Each structure stands twice: as C-alpha cells, then as structure tokens.
Amino acid sequence: MNMFSPKATMRVVHVTQAGGTLELSDRPIPGPGAGEVRIKVEACGICHSDSVTKEGYFPGLVYPLIPGHEVVGIIDALGPDVSGWSVGQRVGLGWFGGHCSCCDWCRRGDFTRCSNADITGVTRDGGYAEFLTASVEGLVTIPDALNAIEAAPLLCAGISTYNGLLRSGAGVGEIVVVQGIGGLGHLAIQFAARFGHKVIAIDKGAERRELALSLGASAYYDADRQDVVSELQAAGGAKAILAVHNHAPSIGPMLEALTLDGTLMVLGVPEASLEIVPRLLLSGRSVKGSSGGTSMEAEQMMCFCADHDVRPIVEVVGLGDVPHAYERMERGEARFRYVIDPSR
Ligand SMILES: [Zn+2]
Ligand SMILES: [Zn+2]
Fold it and tell me: Where are the bilayer-spanning segments (predicted)?
C-alpha cells in the first residue's frame, strides 16, 4: 500500500445478483495486475447503461459487481509491465476497459468491437467506489481545464454524442436535429452547435425551450404542439437526426423529416422495436447506431470540450445517495447527469 491509499478497505456500491439492488458495502482495496493501474476515484457518472450490470442484461456476469463506467481519478499505483502512465496522473476511464488482441475484430485493429472486451463496471468492477483497477488500454488523459465532476459524464454521454454526430455525415451549416433533451441530448446540442451545424432541438412541452436555446440550438420544436416532421420538411429536411432518448415510437416517424440522403442516428437504448417505412430508405436515407469510441477519440473529445466550452449539467451525490439517484435517473428525473463524488 503506498502513500495515496493508507487504508485496506474502501467503500463501494455494488450489486450482489442480477436484478438485485444497489447496496453500500466495504471491500478490500484491489491491487493492480499486470498492465493495469489502480485509480483513486474522484468522480463517476451514473448512466442508464449501468442497468446492464444491475439487471444482468449481459451474459456470464459474475457477481457481486460494482457498476460505473464514467470514471475520473488519480493513478495511485502501477501494476507490473506498465509504461507511459505514472502515479499522480489524472485519468478517465469509460465503457471500453480493454481488448483481447486475439479475436477477429482485434486482428482487424478494431479494438472497441473486441468480442472479448473488458467493459468497465460490467465485466469487471467499475467506478461506484473509492478505488478501482483498470487496464491501461482504456485510459484517457484529461485537460486541466475540466474538473473531475464535469469530465466524468463526458466519458460515456460525451463520447457517444460526439462520435454519433461525427459518424452521421452532417456537414457545416446543415440541419442537425437533437430529439430529446436529457443526459445525452443536452451534450449533443452543444457539440452540434460548436461543430457549425444548424441545430433544432425537439422535446415535449415548453419548459426545455430556453435551456435548448442557451445550449446552442437555433430553434426548439415542442412535439406536443407542433407537427415536427412537416416543419422540418418545410425547412428543407434534416441531414442528421440524433435520437437521444428511449421512446421507440417517436423515432421511426422522424425518417420522413430527413433529407433524401440524411441519417437517423440512434444513440439511446429503447427496449421496444422501431417502426420504419421501407419506402423512405430507397432514396438513400439511412438508420444507424453508434456508441462510445476509442480512448484516443475520448481524449480528443475532452480537448474539444475544454477548448469550446462544452460542459455537462450535473448533480453531485455521495456513494450513500447512489440508490436514490439511480432511481431518479431511471424515472427520467435527473437534470441531467448524476455524478458520484466518493469523498462525500
Ligand atoms: Zn478481441
Ligand atoms: Zn454510459
């Protein structure tokens, strides 16, 4: 044990079985294995995808498990065979927690699609804790301009919307629609505006109009009161529509609001199926999905956020508040991301 971690145990929030509850517990502080570092956690975002661990949506999970894949902290110990990283360095860690180097995807050099990938907070313990160990493959450096609390959600919600937008093919000046102003949407609006797109934000009700405009949207459509598809058609159509919510029935109809070569980019995780009219695809419109990115892409995204003033809106909670915060997030009541500060 070194100077940064004099104690032998740490507080964590873990799940002891699939479909179980989030429980506060004490665990021995883990030591880093070969190719790993130990991180003293400064912040960890709470994300809808943590339900994969809590509910056991992923095959073969071994419980108890500590969720959390939006981790920022300080390296406090190095395992054997680690180079390029040092004790005291501030790092981030997202969903991608390491690759196997042997599967077909790895042999193509496409490591984030690794068939045997380690997933932070899913296949190995994550950041709802005072410490965690991590393979160096997933580590991300963080610019000084971002504090740990604001950097944490960028490691998942940030990189997902940033890459989703880049992969949508929308060009400068073209219309990008952000459908849903929540944990992903409030970041997507900021990225799209800073990328030079004409951003139209869509949600239900009037209360998010001011926020959407202040984040960089040039217009806000209230889906309760406006026929958003015809209004977008009248505006020339959207080159890209980012569906950043979990309400499947409102996604399919948006296909008709695209330009003939536009892309409907699904970034949320609705459980229901999408209804798509095949005729609308014949012109070259497409429906795609995207999630996460490489550690290098996350690093570039972090620098973009620092340079162009992109920040998540967060509420900070301690480890003891996690079960309550998680429930509020699942009910859609978070504004807009909960972030755990384990020192609280
Ligand atoms: Zn692999
Ligand atoms: Zn996430």
Answer: none
How many domains are contained in the chain?
2
**Of 224-228, 237-241, 256-260, 330-334, the least confident:** 330-334
Q: Which ligand is nearest to the CA of 115?
A: 1
Nearest ligand for residue 118 CA: 1
State the CATH number of the domain containing residue 29.
3.90.180.10
C-alpha–C-alpha distance, residues 166 and 138, integer Å:
21
pLDDT band for position 5 (50/70/90)?
low
**DSSP classification of residue 76:** E
- Identify whether the C-beta of residue 240 lies closer than 8 Å to the C-beta of residue 168: yes
pLDDT at residue 254, rounded to an integer: 97
What is the identity of the amino acid at 104? D
Q: How far does the centroid of ligand 2 lie from the alpha carbon of residue 154, in Å?
A: 9
Is there a single domain that holds both residue 18 and residue 37? yes
pLDDT tier for residue 101 given thresholds of 50, 70 and 90: very high
Distance 95 CA to ligand 1 centre (A): 15
Residues 298, 149 share a domain = yes
